[in-house]
Amino acid sequence: MFINQNPNRRSFLGSVSAAVAALVSPSRLFGKTVAATPPPAGVTGFGATGNVYEELGVTPVINGEGTMTVLGGSLMRPEVEAVMSMAGRHFVPILELEVAAGNRITQLLKLPDGYTAIVTSGAAAAMQSGLAGILTGDNEQFIQQLPDLTGMKTEVIIQKSHRNPFDHQLRSTGIKLVVIETREQLARAINPNTAMMHFSNFANSAGEIKVEEWVKIAHAHNIPAFIDAAADTPPVSHLWDYAQMGYDLIAFSGGKAIRGPQCAGLLVGKKDLVAYALLNNSPHEDTLGRSQKVGKEEVVGMVKALELYLAEDHAALNAEWQRRLDYISAAVTKIPGVATEFSLPDVANHVPHLHISWDPKRVSATPRDVSAALRQSKPSIVIGASERGGGLSMNSFMLQPDEEKIIAEKLAQILKAHAA
Ligand SMILES: *Cc1c(COP(=O)(O)O)cnc(C)c1O
After folding, report:
1. For labelling alongside 13, which of 5, 126, 310, 311 has CA 20 to 30 A away?
2. Ligand 1: distance of its center to the CA of 253 in Å?
3. What lines the ligand 1 site, CB under 6 Å?
4. pLDDT of 5 strictly over 80
């Protein structure tokens, strides 16, 4: 089972140490890397080379890890960039735009009656403002008072296996997480102070109470149920499945597989709760969510990204992702002692994964050595040591055309260099 927080943490630590190394010896990180895009006509000065990152001295990487925020999430389609640029040419009343975009998204996703959506600055922001809205309703004093919960409910129930770094966004409202493991503990935990029951969908298989039962129990007690489904597309149907299941609020990342703007996400949910969430968010000023501003460009970009994502041939995409991994697998398994295995996480990052492992008697380098050598190669390639231990683990859905060839070649080179 692949959960998000571990790779995030690993990559975060990796990037911290890389940044420290860069301070010590900046020249080590420079060199020719990922192809530059041609500069737009008329750009002189900064950006004139077509590679803004290299101009700043930061090396872009080939991303074999997937939609990681620490690597920049995903890449927008050109049409998304185009509509964002159109959006940037006019002033517009932001609240009116949020509501109108939410209506369009509701139609695009064919959400059930009584549901709507807003664009937030990410799934994390959707979690914070969604809960804030449940706590405050439309009470202006409560909205201004958060995270002081005087007069409001104070508890959110979560299963122990569902705890993860993103529940910081829930705790930031001032609530206390009440952690349970069994149905019995849940029954005892529910009380008049319970504001919400939170479900982290990537942990569905780890908890005693699964996704459909969780919402039923919540509703039997008149408690709103929230589901963090940030990284849960593909499959595309997850964009409406949880609303159909009855979840009151649902958070998605815009800048992961949907390939919307990196600073965008969706809060889908019951109309009143979504409206309360918006009251707790930018552009409203005396609010907890004012720090999570979402711009007109992101709101519009998210509408376009969803339209394009829904129209995509998902089976063809999946076949292409598998083909890339097959290519890499074929190249590395030619090396004696190297083996590969494929897997598909059930939920969250539900895309083909490739695990590459080797007999340490025949290839002496450790997975961490190989991962570090890939990172230092030109172009720089990010593929982490497997969470399972004993190898490397990668996916291919964020690779750009032909990058699988570069990865196959470099990886084979590095493994061969350490062959016994
Ligand atoms: C990525 C992620 C988030 C945060 O999403 P953003 O859109 O980056 O704010 C929250 N929860 C889970 C499980 C995630 O994978």
Report:
1. 126
2. 6
3. 4, 69, 122-124, 166, 202, 228, 230-231, 253, 255, 265
4. no
CATH topology of domain 314-417: Aspartate Aminotransferase, domain 1 (3.90.1150)
Is 70 exceeded by the pLDDT of residue 12?
no
SS3 content of the chain, % helix, strand, coil (to 5): 45, 15, 40
pLDDT above 90 covers what percent of the chain?
86
Stated pTM of the model: 0.90
Residue that has been written with the tokens 């590459």 in this structure: 356
Q: Which atom of ligand 1 is nearest to the CA of 228?
A: 11
Q: Render pLDDT for 408-418 as a digit per residue (tens, 0 to 9).
A: 999 999 999 99
pLDDT of residue 348: 81
pLDDT for 318: 95
Residue among 74, 2, 69 at smallest CA distance from 258:
74
pLDDT tens for residues 111-148? 999 999 999 999 999 999 999 999 999 999 999 999 99
Give the nearest ligand 1 atom to 4 CA: 15
Of 3.90.550.10, 2.60.40.10, 3.40.640.10, 3.30.56.10, which CATH number belongs to 74-311?
A: 3.40.640.10
Phi, psi of 417 (to 5 degrees): -65, -20
Count CB-CB contacts under 10 A for residue 76. 23
Tell me the CA–centroid distance for residue 231 and ligand 1, in Å: 6
Q: Which of 2, 69, 200 to mutate to test the pocket of ligand 1 (most atoms within 8 A of CB)?
A: 69
Please tell me the residue having the least CA distance from ligand 1 atom 8: 122
Ligand 1 centre to CA of 156 (Å) is: 19
Q: Is the CB of residue 382 less than 8 Å from the CB of residue 61?
A: yes
Q: Report residue 60 as tokens.
A: 């872009």
Atom in ligand 1 nearest the alpha carbon of residue 252: 7
Domain-wise residue ranges, the chain: 74-311, 314-417
> Phi and psi at residue 158, in whole multiples of 5°?
-145, 145
> What average pLDDT score do residues 201-212 get?
97
